């Protein structure tokens, strides 16, 4: 059971715990064929290459994150792909410049020298792009480090994003394979977060992986998000932190947008619910590492607005149902137990902790402390105490709310809460002939 902002009460029963990818369209293919049939006419090839780069630049904006503004801090390179911005000083990236590399990628004035084959083996877009004859370096290129043996490509991405993305192909190759294994043998003691990716890495690798059609990179990081933004109650109960360890609460907005970008609906119910727990910053969004402002799409803001109201109501109803004054089957002294249940129900609105749980949408937090406080003398019989306990009605209600999350958040998810253990305990707590 995840909690946010470190909030989490202890529980004795707790088990402690796409791709609408940018396909190279037919016109690109046609253009490529035309180039082949034209032999090696440099001028035509160069024009075609630049047009392809331009098209990818346009697609970049097509797949921009919902709500992501174009107010990039760094001047985006002209998407004609032909030249650096006049007067711009290019700098080698200190980390991702391999002297024996054969491909120079230029983004936001930063040059990365990497290995063409590593990219083309994973990225259909880079494969297409680099299969075309490369433009001959013109005057504008002379101040960078490209050479006849090094293709040079200008991209409209930010250097921050590109750096994260390229790491997945160089020293990061092992990294993204690793994040789905080592990091998840998590216990309370294993909170050092060494192996956990931060939001900027996850976001950049998914966005650029999507743009350049690197399925393995995208899937790896989506799988990472799925470990936290789960789609079944059993997994929900096992997750010990609400957000990935190196994410900030505001990054929930980014997670929703990544789910939208990749069509990963299963992430949305929990990610949107998590957004509902944000304050006014929900509308403000956040600045990405490269200065880009990222906000929720308007439709998702509305979903949060409506979803928060639904979830608050559901939390109230759940509390009412947990403490309703129907005694348990086999109750030892029904009159006394019924009286306690009525007191539990009546005093809910006077209990600040319980009310705060409802306001904060902590629908799965333990309410046993409240029971113990109201019924300090333990007038409830053992059977009724068990019934209102965490393995009793509390469990029923939190499972019910989790099951309804997609509906409350206004999204449709196939196989939501399937394969969980929601159906394995069908205990009838109340007596059929209860008072
Ligand atoms: Zn009883």
TrEMBL record:
PROSITE patterns on file: BTB
Alphabetical list of SMART domains matching this protein: BTB
Ranges where the BTB domain occurs: 101-178
Region: Disordered, residue numbers: 1-88, 137-156
InterPro entries associated with the record: BTB/POZ_dom, SKP1/BTB/POZ_sf
Ranges of Polar residues composition bias in the record: 1-12, 34-43
Biased composition (Low complexity): 67-84
Name of the protein in its database record: BTB domain-containing protein
Organism: Ganoderma sinense ZZ0214-1
């Amino acid at each position: 059971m995840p909690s946010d902002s470190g909030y989490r009460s202890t529980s004795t029963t707790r088990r402690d715990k796409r791709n609408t990818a940018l396909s190279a369209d037919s016109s690109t293919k046609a253009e490529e064929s035309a180039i082949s049939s034209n032999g090696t006419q440099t001028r035509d090839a160069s024009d075609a290459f630049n047009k392809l780069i331009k098209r990818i630049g346009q697609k970049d904006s097509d797949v921009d994150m919902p709500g992501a503004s174009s107010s990039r801090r760094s001047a985006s390179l002209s998407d004609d792909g032909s030249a650096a911005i006049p007067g711009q000083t290019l700098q080698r990236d200190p980390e991702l410049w391999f002297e024996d590399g054969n491909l120079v990628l230029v983004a936001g004035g930063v040059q990365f020298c990497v290995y063409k084959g590593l990219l083309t083996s994973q990225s259909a877009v880079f494969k297409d792009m680099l299969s075309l004859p490369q433009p001959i370096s013109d005057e504008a290129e002379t101040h960078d480090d490209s050479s006849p043996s090094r293709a040079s490509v200008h991209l409209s991405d930010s250097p921050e994003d590109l750096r994260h993305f390229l790491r997945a192909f160089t020293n990061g190759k092992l990294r993204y394979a690793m994040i789905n294994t080592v990091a998840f043998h998590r216990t309370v003691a294993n909170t050092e977060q060494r192996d956990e990716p931060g939001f900027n890495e996850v976001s950049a690798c998914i966005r650029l992986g999507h743009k350049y059609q690197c399925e393995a990179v995208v899937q790896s990081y989506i799988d990472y998000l799925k470990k936290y933004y789960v789609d079944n109650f059993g997994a929900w109960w096992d997750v010990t932190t609400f957000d990935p360890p190196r994410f900030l609460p505001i990054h929930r907005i980014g997670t929703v947008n990544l789910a939208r970008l990749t069509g990963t609906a299963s992430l949305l119910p929990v990610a949107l619910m998590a957004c509902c727990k944000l304050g006014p910053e929900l509308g403000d969004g956040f600045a990405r590492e490269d200065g880009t402002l990222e906000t929720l799409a308007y439709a998702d803001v509305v979903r949060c607005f409506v979803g928060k109201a639904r979830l608050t109501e559901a939390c109230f109803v759940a509390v009412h149902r947990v403490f309703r004054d129907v005694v348990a089957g086999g109750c030892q002294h029904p009159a006394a137990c019924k009286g306690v249940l009525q007191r539990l129900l009546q005093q809910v609105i006077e209990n600040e902790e319980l009310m705060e749980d409802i306001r904060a949408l902590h629908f799965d937090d333990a309410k046993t402390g409240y029971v113990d406080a109201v019924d300090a003398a333990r007038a409830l019989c053992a059977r009724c105490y068990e019934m209102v306990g965490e393995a009793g009605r509390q469990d029923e209600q939190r499972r019910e709310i989790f099951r309804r999350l997609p509906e409350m958040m206004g999204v449709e998810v196939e196989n939501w809460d399937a394969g969980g253990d929601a159906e394995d305990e069908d205990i009838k707590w109340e007596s059929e002939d209860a008072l």
